[in-house]
Every structure is written in C-alpha cells, then in structure tokens.
Amino acid sequence: MVKNPRKRQKTGKPQHKTVPLGANLRNDTSKDDEERRLENLLFGVPYAPEKAGKEILVVSDEEVEDGPHEVGREFENLLDSDLFFVDDHAGISELSHGPQDHVQSDADDDEEPIIPEVPESDEDEEISIIHQEIPQQPQKTKAPAWTDPDDVNVQVSLASNNRLRKLRDAPSDDTVGGREYERRLRRQFEHINPTPDWASIARKKRERGKRRRSSVSGSESGEDVVPELLASTAGILATAKSRTIPPSTLSIERLRDANQAAPADGEIKTVAFHPSPHIPVLLTASADRRLRLFHIDGLTNPHAQTLHVPSLPITNAVFHPSGTSILMTGPRPFYYTYDLQSGASHRSPRGLWGTTFSSGRGDQGASMEISSFNPTGDVLAVAGRRGQVHLVDWRSGAAQVVGELKANTNVKSLWWSKAGAGELLGLTEDSQVYVWNIGQRKCVKRWQDEGGFGSRLFGGDSQGKYLTVGSNTGLVNVYNAESTIDLEGGKPKTLKTIGNLTTSISTLRFNHDSQLLAIASNDKKDQMRMVHCPSLTAFGNWPTSSTPLGHVTSVDFSRESEYLAIGNTRGRVLLYQLRHFSQQ
User: I need a labelling partner for 382 at 20 to 30 A (CA). Which of 159, 244, 394, 573 fits?
Assistant: First the structure.
C-alpha cells in the first residue's frame, strides 16, 4: 500500500524530447481565440477563428509556402524588433508596417476583427510633412464662433410676420428653412449697413498683395500678364471697368447733407465735384454770393472754405478741367477765378470784350452766365447777346478774346463735342443747333431739334456717346453724339424722347461712364428722374414720392460716380451714395 495516496507513483522515467521554441505554435487544439489573436500580433502567425464550416479570409504579412511546414523554422527570418516591443501606451500597430492583419468574416460571427490603431505621433508627423509640401491656403472668411445644429430644422414664415416680409424674394415666398433664413437676414443687414470704405480699401490692398506675390512666385502667371499690358495703351495703374447697372433697380443710399457743416442762406445755384478722383471736394454756389468748399467723406463732410464775392451774384461756378482753379460767373460782364493752390482770387481784366463795362457797349457781352470750357481747358466759350459767342484764350492767362462766332438768335446753351475734332455746339432760342469748327471759325452744320419748340438747354456725356436736348415742355430728346456733328449726314434722328417730366427742364447731367442721366426741373417740387442710358428708361424705385428733393436747381456726379449731389432752393445739398460704383 502506498504511504501517501495523494502522490502518484512513478511508473517509469519519462522521456522528454527536445522541442525548439515556437514549434507548437501551429498546435491550435488547446488555444482559444484570444490566444490566437495575441500570437498573430506578437509573432505574425495567421489568425483563424475556431469555426467549422466557415469561409475565412486570412490576411498575412508572410506568404504561406505550399510545401510542408518545417518545425522550428517559423522565426528564422524574423527580427528582434518584430518579436518584442516596449509598451508605451501608443498602440500596437507600430509592429506591423504592412497591410493590416484582420479577418473578414460573415455576419454570423459574433466577434469583430481587431483593427490596429494609428498612433498619434505618426499622424502628426504625416500632417506636418503634407503642410511642408502643399502650403495651406489662407481662409478668406473666419469660421463662425458658434453654430447651432438645430438651425437646419427651423421653419420660419415670412408672410405671417410684418417685419419679415422684406426678406421675401417674391410675393409668394412664405416658409423658409433655418439656413435660408440666416442667409436672407445677413443679406438684409449688408444692404442696410454696407461695407465701409476703409474696410473695402484694406481688403483690396490685401488681395492685390496676394496677387502680386503669386505672380512673382509663379512664372506662368507672369507670362500671362505681360501680353495683356503690352496689348493695351491704357496706364498700368488704370482702374477696372465699372460694372453694368441693371435697368430695373438703382441701388442708392442717402447720406448726411453735403453742406450740413455750413448751410447756405439762399438758393443753391450750382454744385460741382472736383474733376480729379483723388480729391473729394465739392463746391456749392448760393444766392448769398458765397462759394463754399466741402471735403466729401460720406460721414461728416467737413467744411473747408468759404469765398464771399460781394460784387458778383454767382449763378455758375465750375472747376477748370485741370482742377487747379475755379471759374465764377454771373449776370455781369466780368468773372472771378480762385486758385486752389495759392488761395488767391482774381477778377477778369477790364476791356475783355473790347470796351469797358460803363462805355455803353455792354450789349455785346453784358453777361457771362452761359460759358463752357473745352475738354483741355485752353479755350473758354462765352455766349453773349445777339447770337455772339466769344472765344477766350485761357492758356496764356491774360484772358484775351481770340475769336468770335455768330448765330442768328441768342444762344441758350453751349457744349463741346467729345466725339469729333472738338467742335463747339450751340443751342439757340429757335431750337436750332449750330456746329462750329473752331479752327476755321465758321459754322459747318446746322440742324433743327425734333419738336422744334421751346428747346432750353442741351448737354452731352464725357464719353462722346449721347447728346440730350431739354425743352420747356419737359421733353428730353436723346441723340447719338456722332450723328449730330456728321457733316455728310442730314438731320440726326432721336434715339428716344423721354417724357417723364412735365415742366421746363433746368438740369441735364451724365455720370462718368454714361450709364446714368439725371434730368430735373426747378419749376415744380420733386421734379427729378434718373434715366438708365443703355435702355433709355427711367428707374422706378428712385426717386419716390417720399424723397425730400424739393425744387431741384443743380445736380452733379462725383468723378467716379460714388456720390450724387443735389442742390435745391432751400439752401440744402442732398448727398446720396451710388452703391453700384462705391463697392467696386
């Protein structure tokens, strides 16, 4: 009997056979799935779940040989770094640099294959390399500080709320989503509060700097710019073309009055902007015989200077085309000039018309109210009595009469043509239009205004496209400027007759690119219309019956048409901003 029954008797000396390390890795009879996964991760042994009758796709880094497996040679070609690793909580995917070793099984398999995670260190290193190779483009707009995901599910009714009806694009619009509601609110806010000038200028400078840097870095962009510069005769710093204004709606906003800092005591006779786009100066001449200069910035419009001329009732004041001086005229046979650089004022010399004012021959030129500079500013044309037109040499500075032109009746208006060779056109009391050649000092063409009754004044645009004639009945005839001076052609035909006003026309003014025409009458209150020149139709949205225009006496556009100044009989100069041109 055995002394200790718990101990087994040794029946014989066991014989142990030497087995190499890793020889029993293929013996999967006593291994569960978790142990097989661990072997797959540590030693690279293909992992196959213990499922019978299933089709298993095994992905391995090593190719399985077709021949019989040799025992003890499983780790012959493995490195130590593949067999062992240091656990630094960074993940275990660093061990395998090839394809991911996972198994795709059927939907009946309850266990999911393990997919190695990418360590954060490798991801950061890869992103930094991408940023070095491909420079990240700067964002044009900042990301919103906070977004509400529930905005997508919001439904807002625009028709039921009176304050939201202005957000509708059509009368039938009613319910919009959250995103669309946000977009329309943003559009309405930008419409009421446009981008300020300083922000637009800064944004343009920044975009210009980006284009310059990109053109320097890229050779192809530089090669594309050079042919465009060589193919054009315009200046390199020339401004871009203005946008086309739609004929239906005029985008306009009222600003603070231009002369609010120094209002006039009487009727505004003339308003005029400086001809240079870099000098935002506006002059106003009023019935109190004062000329005032304002710096137009759209906000405060500070008052710059006031010039009092007691001996001259100023009815017309214009800038010289060079922008260096101001000419002031009125119902007197003399004029005053004001030098903007030196601040000195000068009166015209006596005997300008060949005699003095008190000699009794003042009927030749007793008034200089109707006068006009040629485009270069070398010659000043002055309409006198009995159909005479005096040509004053302005280039010499002595203001001498160098020639005279003659019409059959008194001249009511003068205009220098921009379409031909600088011809001078004059409109007489009998609605006749005279075309004079200044070099030959003679009339080369004469034609009758259509309608032929009550023509009061006429004027054209700076581009040489249109010529308009206003009458006492409120009709405005629009002609092609080239046809009015064509010597071979006959009587020019009107492009259209604008009949939006019913009283005598007192103001005709084009903007700088001939897209807008302002017509006004001072005989009746709020008699002004803005005409779209390409279509020759008046805008319907402005001015309206609630626009406080008053009796309009003078209208002028700024050099780039950012601003519109309107003078009236109450001594106010209304200032408006044209958004089509201010947002370029």
Answer: 573
